[in-house]
TrEMBL record:
Full protein name: NADH:ubiquinone oxidoreductase 30kDa subunit domain-containing protein
Organism: Clostridium paraputrificum
One Pfam family here: Complex1_30kDa
Superkingdom, natural source: Bacteria
Domain (NADH:ubiquinone oxidoreductase 30kDa subunit) ranges: 7-106
Entries under SUPFAM superfamilies matching the protein: Nqo5-like (SSF143243)
GO MF, one example: NADH dehydrogenase (ubiquinone) activity
Length: 126
């Protein structure tokens, strides 16, 4: 079992931290997004560091710089998914389109963390 190595960082420190991981040849395992108990966005950047996961946490932001220029495809899908599912934007991310939701869903914007299936089905027939 892995120990949780969470390091809270500020938005301003994100790119330097990610560049350091890349320079050390650390694998980007995943980027996760969630809303904490204070209703703040939390974006977690998970890296493999000698077999353990080290996580950089950025809290309370709605716009973060994209790390796709550093980790390319490893970051792209996760950033696109987070943008689609949360009220979160990644500055510099060149989106390839919607991943899960139809383009016309809520005018192509919005968050679908919780929605009754009956509401979602209304958009299927449009």
């Amino acid at each position: 079992m892995h120990d949780f190595n969470g390091i809270e960082i500020k938005k301003e420190d994100l790119l330097d931290s990610v560049k350091a991981m890349y320079k050390e040849k650390r694998r980007l395992v995943m980027i996760n997004g969630y809303i904490n108990e204070n209703r703040e966005n939390v974006i977690a950047y998970n890296f493999d560091v000698n077999g353990d996961i080290t996580t950089y946490l950025v809290k309370g932001e709605e716009i973060l710089p994209s790390i796709t220029p550093i980790y390319s495809a490893s970051a792209r899908w996760a950033e696109e998914e987070i943008e689609e599912m949360m009220n979160m934007k990644f500055d510099g991310l060149n989106r390839s389109g919607r991943l899960f939701l139809p383009e016309e869903f809520k005018d192509g914007e919005g968050q679908i963390l919780v929605m009754p299936l009956s509401e979602l089905k209304k958009y299927k027939d449009k």
